[in-house]
Write a structure and sequence with these properties.
heterotrimer, A mainly alpha, B mainly alpha, C alpha/beta, A: mainly alpha, MetI-like fold, two-stranded antiparallel ribbon, 14 helices, B: mainly alpha, globular
Chain lengths: 309, 287, 419
């Protein structure tokens, strides 16, 4: 640490004015609290999880090194692949919420009076306790006396057991996920929209372009950096989905749970319910790799669609 | 400062667009209906009896208005003591994280030092790791610090947030350097520049960060359970989760609990929403 | 690296403790204040636990007991993290299916000496329950309560359908016939709840059909035997006939809630619901209980909660005193008198019966005679978790019971073979 720090101090600093730039010492001092916390509470636990993934860790008692055993078990584990499919499906559904958010954000942006009210209303789910959200939606989705089936019955549509039937569970969660995340996406996209020069809209209006045309030719391309950012965040959080499942399906007799576990849920179950922390750790590490690959992939793909003006 | 800028642009744009806005309002109101229906349903359910909510087909409005659900909730969950714990840990966590993240974010954005890029990269990687993965290591640290069952235990891991640091870095990156240099010419040292000049300019983002951190703190369920083995100092989500175990499908009571536990934060958010939205809008999160 | 701390803490703590205990030097001076924590997972029972704690404090003014209630879904993960980290509650409720992992891992306080020194007679507890807390000849928990199963039924629904109430003569066939008559789709009423429920459901019927759940040496399960299949079929037939809410309905609304909401007329489950039903003004006058119907023979699984102590407790002597108290008559009487639960201590059950005279609770006590302990071989929490996965297709009628049972058996046997 010290050796790293001393060097920048001696480096000649300051630009045109001759005022000295802050020295690296200051930088280190400012960063110290965050870094110490990061190392003690995040990096170290992470490393220890990584180590555990190569061990057989019983609930109590000494662990033994087992090399890649946990990982080879995982590759042959049908439950893991099922969880992987569920997480992937959930992520895809969440991504479908992004075009919706783009449209809504641009609509809100065009509203003058009342914009604050819309923003607050869309943001309400974000400030509500997830436990509370889980309870409310579980009730709405109830196959017998839930609100959703009742409303569907007005249109002559047969109700389903949205969270108790594994065919629908992930989709049902996807809807809640979109609903919960819309508020955050809207403010990020809203910030991006405000950076688009309004002169562009005025010019195109003069050329006779309508709202729809403007949306596709001005809004979407110029907003693409924000859309990209929202996409990255959404994928990361969707792949980590746990809370909803934990709250909505953990009833004593929920038979849909078997087929609806996500990767993080499987990790939780192995590590904290079945006393198998080594295997749980391997699941978590694989998930991290999946997230990193997905993020890297998006950065690669962005070249073809994100427009940096 | 930033708020007025936001309002000015919006007013200007209103003038700049052609056509009326009522079709837009119609579309937005439809969307809003979908957003608020769950809350309205929750509110209606609170006043029903258990027998009524399991009736098929359901009733929309409460048939006989009952406050039974609130009675059950308040007689089961020690609301005020849990509320105090929730609020206390929220204040600790928000205050702590703002300081830690602002300092680090400022350094990453405006102070060049060796290893800065690598370190920042590490912060970003930690963003991608599922939080459950840290649980055991964090628990051990809290235990070794002899902080189990205390209020700080609830707040400490949340003081250090890669996301907060990232957000504050974005805020400081977008600020003009002129003020900074002027202050330095006046002989201010780096901390003084940070504290007296730059931090006040970052107020909107601080508000945004405070709201987001407050949210995470208020909502946390698993961590408080693990660090309060003796059952002391447990916050509201724990009480709410316990309620679910106990009242299985007594939906009015569950909904009442969900409502009562959520409302404090909603109120805080409503009070801070102007600064919050301005903060997000003014800096940073534009991708 | 991480593995070391678990090992180290566990070993150090147990070793330190053992020397402390055997030397008898761990005694704290009489006047020193000591606080013990006592964890449970039931808000329903919490008041009684507090009452017991208060009673204990009266006799032991230097010891304070803090009763804490954890939500059930988080109970075991919290306990596990706490035990591995050296911070578990001093005393806590234990279940037979989790017991082995804790006992094997050296996490539980050995009570064998305490039993001798306090002259506790283990015969006062139902043998299946006390046996389930014995590991390698040592006792690690004293039975707190026990439960057997009975047939809960809703008299109002029976009256409405004109069906005679269940009694001790009922066989499987009687239940099936009654379920048929009681089911009324128009009113949204079903004869019985048939969830995939091991303890309150198919374990009992497999035993009643003359089968085993796990074979006596704990090496393999017995689900695909003729008796096993018959025991499973009892439930799948009810499902197939539409006389129970479907599994999906029972996932959305648990069986016990269906019963409480008066949507099902019969529900087989334990004595532990008695207080909840009794306290529910809608149910109190409508509900009663009968013995489980007979198959080839009479049978019910039984299990009970045990009060265990944490090996890492800082106050082992006080803790032992408290655990002995929890296993004694006074604690049992409080549980009984408050109607909380059926106490394990022999002869203290009368007040429990008297606390809810409208219910024929004696059936749960009579059932001890034909009860079989809940099987807990191997990593029980792992193999018990397999039931929904393998049995759902049979319950839904998508797979023949024989096939599902065979697959279920294979999966369970695989887990049993691991350790």
């Amino acid at each position: 640490m010290t050796t790293v720090a001393t060097k920048p101090v001696r480096r000649p600093t300051g630009r045109r004015t001759g005022v000295s730039k802050p020295s690296g010492w200051w930088g280190l001092a400012f960063i110290a609290p965050a870094t110490i916390g990061l190392i003690a509470l995040y990096a170290w636990p992470f490393v220890s999880t990584l180590l555990k993934s190569f061990q057989d860790v019983p609930a109590f008692g000494p662990a033994t090194f087992v090399g890649l055993d946990n990982y080879t078990t995982l590759i042959g584990d049908g439950d893991f692949w099922k969880a992987f499919r569920n997480s992937a499906l959930y992520t895809v559904i969440i991504l479908l919420g992004i075009p919706l958010a783009v449209v809504l954000a641009s609509l809100i942006e065009q509203v003058g009076r009342g914009r604050a009210i819309y923003r607050v209303l869309f943001f309400l789910p974000v400030v509500t306790l997830p436990v509370a959200i889980g309870m409310v939606w579980r009730f709405i989705y109830n196959g017998d006396f839930g609100l959703l089936n009742y409303v569907l019955s007005w249109f002559g549509i047969d109700g389903q057991f949205w969270v108790a039937d594994p065919r629908f569970t992930i989709y049902a969660f996807g809807v809640v996920g979109i609903w919960m995340g819309l508020g955050i996406n809207l403010i990020i996209l809203g910030a991006g929209l405000q950076a688009i020069p309004k002169a562009l809209y005025e010019a195109s209006s003069l050329d006779g372009a309508g709202r729809v045309r403007q949306f596709f030719h001005i809004t979407v391309p110029l907003l693409s950096p924000s859309i990209f950012f929202v996409t990255i965040l959404s994928v990361i959080s969707a792949l980590q989905m746990f809370d909803l499942l934990f709250i909505m399906l953990r009833g004593v007799n929920n038979t849909a749970l078997t087929d609806s576990k996500t990767i993080v849920y499987l990790f939780y179950e192995k590590a904290f319910v079945q006393f198998d922390q080594g295997y749980g750790a391997a699941i978590a590490i694989v998930l991290l790799m999946v997230i990193m690959i997905a993020t890297a992939l998006q950065f690669r793909l962005q070249r073809s669609w994100v427009f940096y003006g | 400062m930033a708020e007025s800028t936001v309002r000015r642009t919006s007013r200007a744009r209103r003038g700049g667009r052609t056509g009326s806005t009522w079709p837009i309002h119609v579309l937005l109101v439809i969307a809003v209906v979908f957003m608020v229906v769950p809350f309205v349903w929750q509110l209606l359910t609170v006043f029903k009896t258990t027998a009524e909510v399991t009736r098929i087909p359901p009733t929309i409005l409460p048939a006989d208005f009952s406050l039974h659900s609130f009675e059950t909730f308040f007689s089961t969950v020690p609301f005020w003591s849990m509320f105090a714990v929730s609020a206390g840990s929220l204040v600790l966590r928000v205050a702590g994280q703002i300081v830690v993240a602002a300092l680090a974010g400022y350094a990453f954005a405006r102070i060049p030092f060796r290893g800065s890029k690598v370190l920042f990269g590490l912060f970003i990687v930690m963003l991608m790791v599922p939080s459950q993965l840290f649980l055991i290591g964090q628990f051990q640290l809290i235990r070794d610090l002899k902080l189990l069952d205390t209020l700080p235990a609830l707040a400490i891991p949340g003081l250090f947030s890669a996301f907060g640091t990232f957000l504050m870095r974005q805020a400081f990156l977008t600020m003009p350097g002129d003020y900074e240099e002027a202050a330095r010419l006046d002989g201010a040292n780096t901390f003084q520049v940070f504290w007296h000049v730059m931090l006040p300019m970052a107020r909107p983002m601080l508000a945004a960060l405070a709201v987001l951190t407050g949210l995470y703190s208020w909502n946390d369920l698993l961590w408080p359970l693990i660090v309060s083995p003796s059952g002391e100092n447990r916050p509201l989500p724990v009480g709410l989760a316990g309620l679910q175990g106990q009242f299985g499908t007594d939906y009015p009571t569950l909904m009442a609990g969900a409502l009562v536990c959520s409302i404090p934060l909603v109120i805080v958010f409503l009070a801070l929403q102007r600064q919050f939205f301005a903060g997000i809008a003014s800096s940073g999160l534009k991708g | 690296m991480k593995r070391k701390w678990i090992a180290a803490t566990a070993v150090a703590v147990t070793a330190g403790l053992l020397t402390a205990c055997s030397g008898g030097s761990g005694d704290t001076p009489k006047n020193e204040k000591v606080t013990l924590t006592y964890a449970n997972w039931s808000e329903d029972q919490s008041p009684a636990m507090k009452q017991i704690a208060a009673e204990f404090e009266k006799a032991n003014p230097n010891i304070t007991i803090k009763v804490q209630t954890l939500p059930w879904p988080e109970y075991w993960s919290t306990l596990q993290v706490g035990a591995a980290g050296g911070t578990a509650p001093d005393a806590f409720w234990m279940l037979a299916d989790h017991f082995r992992e804790y006992a094997k891992g050296g996490q539980l306080l050995d009570l064998t000496d305490t039993i001798t020194s306090n002259k506790i007679d283990m015969n006062v507890y139902p043998k299946p329950v006390s046996d389930s807390y014995t590991y390698e000849g040592k006792v690690f928990a004293l039975p707190k309560d026990f439960d057997t199963n009975g047939l809960w039924y809703n008299k109002a629904l029976f009256d409405a359908a004109g069906v005679k109430y269940p009694d001790d003569t009922w066989t499987w066939q009687d239940v099936q016939e009654a379920a048929k008559k009681l089911t009324d789709p128009k009113k949204g009423v079903w004869g019985i709840a048939a969830p995939i429920d091991a303890q309150g459901g198919f374990y009992n019927t497999i035993l009643q059909a003359g089968g085993n759940i796990i074979n006596p040496d704990g090496s393999a399960s017995d689900f695909a035997s003729p008796a096993g299949i018959a025991g499973l079929k009892f439930w799948t037939d009810l499902q197939a006939a539409g006389e129970s809410p479907t599994l999906k309905q029972l996932s959305d609304t648990e069986a016990v809630s269906m019963f409480e909401n008066q949507k099902v007329a019969m529900y087989t489950s334990g004595a532990y619901w008695a207080l909840r039903f009794y306290k529910n003004p809608d149910l109190k006058d409508k509900v009663d209980v009968a013995p489980l119907p007979q198959g080839v023979k009479r049978a019910t699984v039984t299990s009970g909660i045990g009060n265990a102590g944490y090996a890492g407790s800082k106050h082992p002597e006080e803790l032992k005193k408290f655990l002995a108290f929890l296993g004694g008559t006074k604690a049992a009487e409080i549980q009984a008198a408050t109607g909380t639960v059926l106490p394990a201590y022999q002869g203290t059950q009368k007040p429990w019966l008297d606390s809810m005279p409208e219910f024929h609770l004696q059936v749960f006590i009579d059932a001890i005679d034909y009860s079989v302990p809940l099987p807990v071989a191997g990593n029980a929490s792992e193999w018990q978790g397999l039931a929904p996965q393998f049995l759902t297709p049979a319950w839904d009628g998508k797979k023949p019971v024989e096939q599902a049972a065979k697959e279920y058996q294979d999966a369970v046997d695989q887990v049993l073979a691991k350790k």
